[in-house]
Amino acid sequence: MRKLSALLLALALLFSFVSPTQAEGKALSVWIGDEQVQLGSLQPIMEKGTTLVPAKLVLQKLNFQVAWDQKSKTITGKKDGLVLLFQIDQLGATVNDTEQELLAAPKLVKGTAYIPLRTVSEAAGYEIIWNKEQRTIILQVREPSQGFLWKVEKAGNTVYLLGSIHIANKAMYPLRPEIQKAYDLSDYLVVEADITQMNNQDVQKLVLDLSVYKDQTTLKDHISADAYKKLGEILKENGLEANALDTYKPWSVSSSIDYLSSSHSGYDAEIGIDAHFLEQSITSKKPILELESIEYQLQMFDRFSDKLQEEMLVASIANYYTEDSGIDDLTEMWATGNEEELLKLTESTSSNEELNKALLTDRNAPMVDKITGYLNESATKSYFVVVGAAHMLGENGIVPLLEKKGFTVTRQ
């Protein structure tokens, strides 16, 4: 794994009709693995760099059940809990109740509905390979992410422990079936903090209250001149005034810069592992429990010393300018379920005593107490617990702490 600030890695782990026109030459062909999809006269359409394909034919080839609503001009595909919905002439699709923007709208061509191939394939767990010379589009099954999953049982109660990563890209999906099955079998989803409440008015008020200075000082009074200068350059590069964040504390500014860095790299907290299951629970109305809370986590950051807050911001600034930040390696570690690398990463935080204590030691024990409570419930229940992967291993990790309490924790 290429080097990345242990601090940054810890935070990432912890918390209308159009005539079809084709280019001259060989027609486009679509393959699923090594099998060509026989399209007959229904050839793909290229529009705005997007390949549109006959919806019913391709969806059925991908084992979707297909339905067409003539009144709303909507085509729906369903497969193993995945629901795709496309509406003719609308620059948007719905994937399991989540809206996705489209570069080209679905179209009716001589009575046949055409939809964007990339949206379908990515949602169904395929990656697209384009062979320009052969003019072929190949859909290859993406290897599912392994992740870090453990299981604990006692007297009929079951706790699944999923060590997560809080930011992700689309390539991290799908997850292996065992992870989804564990979630499906569980009565409750348990997360560190319910991040779907971040837009709640009271939460936003708390964020603002904790993030800004109230003692008449500003950011430049708390960080070095060099760090302040580099921060200003980043803000101007992103269309903001150099002093746009002057009223905010370093930990809050660090979070904002990390957001810019991850976005530029194609990573997004909105499709992180915890967000993935929170979305499912909201849709299915599965109860959601918290091990901590948004308020707890915000106050934890706010209690960081001035020295640690400045170190966080300096690391975030450096990471913003680093082409190879290591986030891809972090993702690879999670996707392959490499426990050895996870342990190395967890242990690397111990070099900063304050950080290690705040992020891991002081949090893991209370988490274990709550998990123990689930296992000791008199009612027979199952819990799917999603916690940052860095919490799981190491001397004071959740797995070893549960084992010290006499539980058998099995890697799944």
Automatic annotation (TrEMBL):
Keywords: Signal
Ranges in coiled-coil conformation: none
Transmembrane segments: none
Entries under InterPro entries matching the protein: Cu_amine_oxidase-like_N, Mao_N_sf, TraB/PrgY/GumN_fam, YbaP-like
Signal sequence, renumbered to the chain: 1-23
Domain named Copper amine oxidase-like N-terminal: residues: 34-139
Protein name per the record: Copper amine oxidase-like N-terminal domain-containing protein
Pfam family, one: TraB_PrgY_gumN
